[in-house]
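Re: that chain you flagged

S.,

Sorry for the slow reply, it's been a week of failed gels. I finally had a moment to sit down with the sequence you sent. For the record, here it is as I used it:
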Amino acid sequence: MYYYIEYEGRVFLVEQEGILEFPSSKKEIPFEFKMLGDFIQVQNKEIQFCRPVLDKFPNTWMCKDEAASSEKCSLFVRQAINYSYCRPVSNAIVVNKAGHVLLVKNKRGLLEGKWSIPGGFIDWDEHPKKAIEREIFEETGYIAQAEQILCVHKNTFKEGSGYFMINVNYLCTITGGKSTVPNEEVSEMGFFPPKTAISMVAGVFSKKAIKAFIAYCAA
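Prediction finished late last night. Pasting the structure tokens below so you have them in one place:
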């Protein structure tokens, strides 16, 4: 087990044979700390994210952004820091006049061959609202308007990447355009009653968003 200890953009590292590494023993950590959630795996090694209990700011610790590319740090440390950065995602609950939810069947990515709500990663310097309107158009050909934020969720993918992701879910309506499905991203799409849709989707984000929409309609 390795301990990833971060405080306001600084990381606690220990020197081993001239290379900076994460501490692998509590004896190497001269302060109290709290463990955050479950561990993830990087290079088949377990990493536990932690927050230190400190009296003052750790000026001597290396800046996280510097450590991510510094040859003073092991490749293991650099890769783990890369995983620690939050990946922002924007998803949509697109609803028709009947109150049914739009689902797409993905042709690539983590959800290849599976149903989900429309959405994807937010581009550099892109507002989440603009991101989901772009994603809907790219995936379906529909022009949509993001009306309001429905909910915000977090998730950590422990299998494979270990990435930490924040998802902003918008309630959207279609204002124009026409279907371009099938295309290179989506093989099928359709509108389904919310309770049917939640049983069809595979991704955690899609299930949470549809569940939030059902609660929103019942309020």
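What I noticed first: The chain has two domains: 2-84, 86-218.

Talk soon,
D.
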